[in-house]
Amino acid sequence: MANKNSNSKLTILMRHHPGEAQLETAAIDAWNSQLTYAELNNLPWSFGAYLDSYGVGPEVFVPLCLERSSWVPLAMLSVLIAGGAFVLLDALHPIQRMKEVCSTVKATLIVTSKGNIANVAKLGLQMILTDDMAVWSKENGILKAKVKPTNAAYAMFTPGRTGTPKWVVLEHRSYSTSALAHSSATDMQSGSRVLDFASYAFDGSIIGTSTALIMGRCVCIPSEVDRKRDLAGASRQLGVTWAIITYLSA
Questions:
Q1: Which GO terms describe its biological process (predicted)?
Q2: CA 65 to chain centre
Q3: Predicted local distance difference test score (pLDDT) of residue 16
Q4: pTM of the full predicted structure?
Q5: CA 116 and chain centroid, separation
Q6: Comparing C-alpha atoms, which of 71, 56, 111, 119 is closest to residue 87?
Q7: Which H or E run includes 34?
Q8: CA angle in degrees (0–180, nearest 5) for 39-207-238
Q9: What digits encode the pLDDT tens for the residues 235-246?
């Protein structure tokens, strides 16, 4: 049950309660771009309004199929702001696996990038491209949807490339409360630089990123190549101080 003394909408927490971060503090430090909290308070709202114009709203599930970059947390926030629920897809998974996930959540559109068009087109869904910033950045951020604490925030599927995927849905109230608790329980302190490491097929990728942004920390995103081949070097370069990783990667 959500804590009645705290705001139970994840999107409002992210916009109005950035922990101890100032607007010019780094929110995302990725291999492809860097964003401050000031930028994070604007870009997702424009993209969210763009998604809203395509019918994204409460209980509408939107798959995200993106390469590891700053666009992943931006897209996550944008879907939440539009009132929808996001579903992270691993772009390296077989197309049949992705089809099963999209069919299960009854998706009609998908957020992706130009680099993934050839593969994502096989899903038969309407594609919304993060690369079309010249188009969606003109949106004024005014939304029609009214998000409730009981609305879905995201869906997570069991990992694996084969078999029928099983899934669970987390509501805004459930995750906003648990994210605040995660920060204290995992010693995510002021100034922590949080590594984005886990596969997007695992909920660890969502826990670390969302908790960091709610608490005003910095999310550090290495390229997929560095994540697999030079995690230690990439972590040093990004100044990582906090991470959720497996013992095999430590």
A1: amino acid activation for nonribosomal peptide biosynthetic process; secondary metabolite biosynthetic process
A2: 11
A3: 47
A4: 0.87
A5: 17
A6: 111
A7: strand 34-36
A8: 55
A9: 999 999 998 876
